[in-house]
Write a structure and sequence with these properties.
The protein is mainly beta and 268 residues long. The chain folds into two domains: 136 residues, no CATH class; 115 residues. Helices cover 7% and strands 54% of the residues. The chain contains three helices and 23 strands. Strand 1 and strand 2 form a beta hairpin. The longest helix has 11 residues. The protein is globular and about 55 Å long. About 12% of the residues have low confidence.
């Protein structure tokens, strides 16, 4: 993710002044972007209150320009929302011509199944969606989702509070939003561009958020940090307290050994 986002930022940096206003994010639940074969900029997107997901192909000149999009709502002619008790996309990655998805299918009267699935992306065409040995070609009309400048979105609950984490193209900052369930109205929002008075962009050689977890203590983040005058990666545990609609300050702990990265993802 770190290398991919750096490449995207460097390739698209000079187009920032041509951009439209910030995207309407009202219904975005999860967004992830990457590059498939032939350097095609591809985006996965899912909204609240739907089991469907979208695959978009974006222009190399402007991420406002969606070259192709398809919505996927079923597998083997079984609808996600009516044919299963639950369908959850557990992981998304971009490999060769494929957007690879790990999906949990929970039938109504059977045990959960986790399947390796994929969507074919060839140049600017979105093709097949398949899971394991089953294959289905999707030809239905698609409906664009308005997330033009969003790179990554992750959402979760902290007690009864619905929280959304957002990263955008061209920005070193990230934002947190508190949403009203059902209407998805933004009750409060805060942008974070620095920690302890140091700006992510100018006071560090590199500052990336590798993992975001929603816990009872707040939004917890594993950050990969390279200080400006110390060309060595550090890993820090960061936290932002959430109380009702109030979003607290970002604080990060002491530097830790990057070799222990996996252990840091296990939160108390």
């Amino acid at each position: 993710m770190k290398a991919t986002k750096a490449l995207i930022l460097s390739l698209l940096w000079f187009h920032v002044n041509a951009w439209a206003a910030p995207a309407e994010l009202k219904r975005a639940y999860e967004v992830k972007s990457g590059r498939t074969k032939n350097n095609v900029l591809t985006r996965y997107a899912r909204e609240f209150s739907t089991a469907c997901f979208h695959i978009q192909i974006l222009s190399k000149d402007s991420v406002d320009d969606i070259k192709a999009e398809k919505e996927f709502c079923e597998i083997e002619k079984i609808a996600f929302n009516s044919g299963f008790a639950d369908v959850q996309v557990l992981n998304i990655s971009f490999q060769g011509e494929d957007v690879e998805l790990t999906i949990s299918f929970s039938p109504f009267f059977s045990t959960e199944e986790i399947k390796a699935c994929r969507v074919k992306v060839r140049n600017y065409e979105i093709g097949e969606f398949s899971c394991d040995t089953a294959q289905t070609v999707w030809d239905g009309d698609s409906h664009a989702t308005d997330i033009s400048d969003v790179y990554k979105v992750k959402s979760g609950r902290i007690d009864d509070v619905l929280v959304r984490y957002i990263e955008k193209f061209y920005s070193i900052c990230f934002s947190l939003q508190i949403l009203e369930p059902g209407s998805w109205r933004v009750l409060s929002e805060r942008e974070f561009c620095d920690v302890n008075g140091k700006f992510f962009g100018s006071d560090f050689m590199d500052f990336n958020f590798e993992e975001v977890v929603f816990t009872s203590q707040g939004v917890k983040i594993v950050a990969s940090v390279t200080p400006k005058f110390l060309a060595r990666e550090e890993i820090r545990n960061c936290v932002i307290p959430i109380k009702d609609t109030k979003i607290g300050e970002l604080s990060c702990g002491d530097a830790m050994d990057p070799k222990n990265r996996e252990a840091l993802l296990i939160w108390p």
